[in-house]
Design a protein that fits this description.
Blueprint (H helix, E strand, L loop, with lengths): L5 H8 L4 H19 L8 H32 L6 H33 L9 H72 L2 H20 L6 E2 H19 L3 E6 L8 E2 L3 H12 L8 E8 L2 E7 L13 H12 L5 E5 L2 E7 L9
Parallel strand pairs: 2-4
Antiparallel strand pairs: 1-3, 4-5, 5-7, 6-7
Length: 357
């Protein structure tokens, strides 16, 4: 890998370490020069510079070789489970490289000063190599900490993306489940119209039903929809039902204007209205009253329980579908309550920040 390839540096090191390497080599060479060769024992500035230059060469060699080994080990052991093995091998490499390079350079430098007539007895290489090794290990620890942090963030990001894909797939399945459920109940209604009313009524129902399905298609693949749009869809559905039931079906809408921008699961209100009509008597003797209003940041759909003598077989899809979609999208869930002869469902009104990312 080229030392000057910025993209490769970031890929295998986690950051662009150009200036970190420059400053690190210069600093370490000054420390190594002081440890290996005490400048106070030399009689000229020339010898001090020669000593520093030798330390700079050995430090540069240490840095470049260890850095290349570091990159090689990261390529060979990229997984988190191999971190311990990779770090142990890196520690072994650090000690081996420093011993080989610094002992060789120190020996050559000692010989050089001896030839010039200077004493080299102060160069106790094995003793001063320990602090150099510790310093290099600390520097490599910085590399490892940055690399671990970058990989951890990447792993979390990939996990979140995978989770989002799975959630989206589940939402798509539930959304696609709701539409056939609507069609199933609409066909049952159409059958009743054909049995009880004229062909013209059946034709009108089919025409209005096609308009409702056009709205479903236009809603696209949205996981959340504005309350305003959802109510438009729900009212279109009720308009179809009133053609069948007339004044026997009465829906009261009590929605403040300032709540229309809130978000809600698509087709949820329509499904609740549909269930109320499906499972209760709707007749002149027993008109079905349904109220749709707002209570404490919830859209509440409430109807009087008027059970039919012969119940239509229930698929039990509607409410479960709504509950599952809310669980996937937000931390809030619908509340279903039945008491005093009324069936009530509260749907949380969401804001854009509440939707799970």
């Amino acid at each position: 890998m080229s030392l000057f390839n910025k993209k490769k540096r970031i890929q295998y090191l986690g950051f662009n370490d150009f200036w970190f390497s420059v400053i690190g080599v210069l600093s370490l060479s000054l420390i190594a020069n002081y440890l290996f060769n005490n400048p106070s024992e030399r009689g000229s500035i020339d010898l001090i510079i020669i000593g520093w230059f030798a330390a700079f060469i050995s430090t540069s060699c240490d840095w470049i070789i260890i850095r290349l080994i570091l990159i090689f080990l990261r390529k060979k052991y990229p997984s988190f489970k191999d971190d311990f093995k990779r770090i142990i091998l890196l520690l072994f490499a650090i000690i081996s490289v420093i011993l080989l390079v610094d002992l060789t350079m120190g020996y050559l430098l000692a010989k050089f000063f001896t030839l010039l007539g200077y004493s080299s007895s102060h160069m106790l290489l094995m003793k001063v190599l320990l602090p150099v090794i510790l310093i290099v290990i600390m520097i490599m620890a910085i590399y490892e900490a940055i690399y671990y942090n970058v990989r951890l963030k990447k792993s979390i990001r990939e996990e979140e993306q995978t989770k989002q894909v799975m959630i989206q797939a589940q939402l798509d399945t539930l959304r696609n489940q709701a539409q056939p459920h609507f069609l199933f109940n609409s066909l049952n209604t159409l059958r009743d119209i054909i049995d009880q009313d004229t062909k013209e009524d059946a034709k009108d129902f089919v025409d209005n039903l096609s308009g409702v399905y056009r709205f479903i298609i236009e809603s696209g693949n949205a996981n959340l929809i504005s309350l305003q749009k959802e109510l438009k869809f729900a009212k279109a559905y009720i308009h179809i039902q009133t053609e069948r039931f007339g004044n026997n079906l009465q829906v009261q809408w009590a929605i403040p204007e300032d709540q229309l921008s809130a978000l809600i699961v698509p087709m949820s209100v329509q499904l609740l209205l549909e269930n109320a009509i499906k499972h209760n008597v709707v007749s002149k003797a027993k008109p079905l009253h349904i109220t749709v209003g707002i209570e404490q940041d919830n859209l509440v759909v409430r109807n009087k329980i008027q059970p039919k003598s012969t119940q239509t077989p229930s698929t039990k899809i509607g409410l479960k579908n709504i509950e599952k979609r809310y669980q996937l999208i937000s931390s809030k869930t619908p509340i279903i309550h039945q008491n005093e002869g009324y069936f009530t469902v509260s749907l949380p009104l969401l804001q854009p920040t509440i939707e799970k990312s």
